[in-house]
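Could you help me review a protein record that somebody else here produced? My question to you is simply how this chain folds and whether the tokens agree. Thanks in advance; the entry in question is below:
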Amino acid sequence: MAIALTFMFFLAGIICAKSEYIDYNTTARISPDKINVHLVPHSHDDVGWLKTVDQYYVGANNSIRGACVQNVLDSVISALFEDKNRKFIYVEVAFFQRWWRQQSKTMKVKVKELVDSGQLEFINGGMCMHDEATAHYIDLIDQTTLGHQFIKDNFGQLPRVGWQIDPFGHSSVQAYLLGAELGFDSLFFARIDYQDRAKRLKEKNLEVIWRGSKSLGSSSQIFTGIFARHYDPPDGFTFEINDVSPPIQDDILLFDYNVEERVNDFVAAALAQANMDKFIHYVNKDGRVNALYSTPSIYTDAKYAANDKWPLKTEDFFPYADRPNAYWTGYFTSRPALKGYVRLMSGYYAAARQLEFFKGRNSSGPNTDALADALSIAQHHDAVSGTERQHVAADYALRISIGYIEAEKLVASSLAVLTDSRSSTGQEKAVTKFQQCPLLNISYCPPSEAVLSSGKSLVVVMYNPLGWRREEVVRIPVSNEKVIVKDSGGKIVESQLLPLSNGTSRIRNQYVKAYLGKLPSETVKYWLAFSATVPPLGFSTYIVSNAKPTDPSSVISSSAVYKSQGSTSNSIEVGQGNLRLLYSADEGKLTHYINSRNQVTASAEQSYSYYSGNDGTDKDPQASGAYVFRPNATFVIKSESQVQLTLVRGPLLDEVHQQLNPWISQITRVYKGKEHAEVEFTIGPIPIDDGIGKEITTQITTTMKTNKTFYTDSNGRDFIKRVRDFRTDWDLQVNQPIAGNYYPVNLGIYMQDDDTELSVLVDRSVGGSSLVDGQIELMLHRRLLHDDSRGVGEVLNETVCVQNACEGLTIQGKFYLRIDHLGEGAKWRRTVGQEIYSPLLLAFTEEDGDNWMSSHVATFSGIDPSYNLPNNIAIITLQELENGKVLLRLAHLYETGEDKEYSVLTSVELKKLFPNKKIGKVTEMNLSANQERAVMKKKMLVWRVEGSAEEETKVVRGGPVDPAKLVVELAPMEIRTFHIDFDVVKIKMFGC
């Protein structure tokens, strides 16, 4: 029998110094005939929270928090040198990496000896202890890979235990993907719902086998331990700086000699569920329990050796509440602008690595390293979660921005090489200067806005990071309406001018000045929209130029604009393709969704509301804040405008512009070639003049009979069934019927009845639910006036200041909706969801006349021109590593049973992915690519499960890669990771 115990040990080097009179015996090891108390000294160093990551590391800004990570590491390492029996686990590689770089060669040798001996062990091994609700699975993989590579390169070690002790709820993706697929044997954490913990304590079910994926089942389960209380020791045994825990006093000449008393306290704490050299010495001398310095790995091995069977846990641990009125579901939406920026840059980072691969890595040139580092720490559980202080959020965003600038140079240089026909022959270096538009989301793009001078043309190169061909409508802001668009073959492309809405123009001026310190130099009145076709893992080129008198007048259409006010018709129809939306003419509200292709017709409405945030002044002083969502009341937001809606109609798309009130507007787009609606919302500044914080939501309401059931994704991967006011693992006592039914949404949310299913996809993490049958609700923005007393000590009241004038943050984002016949929505969710994550990357340059096409490569695909990736497979990583190997990750996008056509074993031909390079060797790796998968599988512990779990049907997995055929099989929800060695370095391009 073994009992695990962890205690906080991270503020300063306070492992007790040895007395000059007594040599304490710390040599204890596991004793098979006693209760074993595993003392696990561990780090919990937030990579930014109350202070920035730099301030935490060097110990700056201590008026906020007296924390200095470099001193922690200095003192811990010193204490480990003093006694070889002491142990310590370290988690946050972003901090350890900084400390390591400052050490001398002699110190590095000594620290490596500590690691080799097991005294110092890396647990988790990512750059940070990441959030599990609001982070995308690709970001989680990337930040973990970065940390694991550092550990392997410098210490030759492979972390084997997950340690997520502080995130506010736990995802199924954490269990199987960021656990078992990494090669971890166990996972430990602290925070679970207070009702769940009480039941598990009573039934002694705090340790389970967690099977997080229906598709991968027992092939990717993990032993999981939940702490009996929080991630600290029993009361009285903390021993941190400024703690009041009484020390053990063993000098019999002193009046406060307390060995027997403190040993009794320690044993009692151990039996119920304890510090240091003295305790190990005296507790083991007492003999009732066996105490030892330990690590989670030692504890895991002891549990495995017991050969017991363990209860089975499926699904996830959301939502998390620590008290009856304290559901930590507000942070699913907190700081939506930061969440959107992290997601946007994540997709950009993936595309930039691909372009770097096609160009060829240059160690002396621009690279993606700074962006990789910035995104990795942004996955911290007080970063993308939105639960940090305002100056820390700004620091995360600044780091990402600096990383983007460097990656932007890489992208520009890569496209210059790939588009320059001379560079492929080695004649000359590429000289094209490409610009990109990071503020395109607020309609600011200097290269496209510039008036096209006589004889000049705007060259638009569009890169597609996905493995399948895409046809999309591209929109860029222009200041000249007399323009024409041509494709790479010189053919005129149909295009459309759309007016900028008033809300978009206001944001453009306000936020460009906030970001750049000056107003835009051009006045933009239009979006230029045109259809573009882009090959897989490749680019297409389009030319925008001044229209000539001889050009046909029909090639560019100015959108027709209609006002709904005064309409004599009962309804207004929007959309000219298969999808049509009907709006009521009198109220300007959406009423029906009609798809003429699949004969889906449904009543559908969309509305906005807000919750007033609880101020914490009632009998339970719990306020709504950065973490906690505690609504007071619900208020429907009705339109204040006399003009109910403006309809913009054209050959490519229709738009519906609606201004609900001075601080909420939206544009609904229906593309002629698409079968979903795109809703672009603008919210802010949220008014607080009434002294009430507000949490803004939107609702999509139908007549569907959904029986309290809906589905939300786990970090963008598996969808999990949710039932309102119900938990699978315990009988829920409902205290907060709204907040307690909110879940994290990263990819999307859907609901279904016997006939149809409604799906909504998002462009960033938000909170979502179905609080009423037939209705989906998303929380889009929050502005609050009270702290929720969970440590951040600051209200969630984001503002933007221009010339010392500050106003509440305005955000702009998108969600997408579609209604399908039952069982047919997965194709759209998975395909469009991937396209939302990986939008087309646009780059611009200017060229004289019409000679661009004759002197440049106009189209390019990095794969065989006759090949597309299967529709259910995505390339999520394509990266040339420093050692010359190529890191490739392929992901199956569907779950078992999700779609009758695509939830199947699927093959990818590597030879066609790399058609002009000779593949020398393909080595399958684990998810973080720090060990061969075959070796990992042989080492992993196989746990026994209670019940009939062993009798389950064998899980289907893709087979080994034949070295001659080089075909990769992927089963539903499988991600496979490879190191690829090429015999030929030179890349030839498919292009013209």
Notes: The CA atoms of residues 877 and 889 lie 5 Å apart. Confidence is low (pLDDT under 50) at residues 1-21.
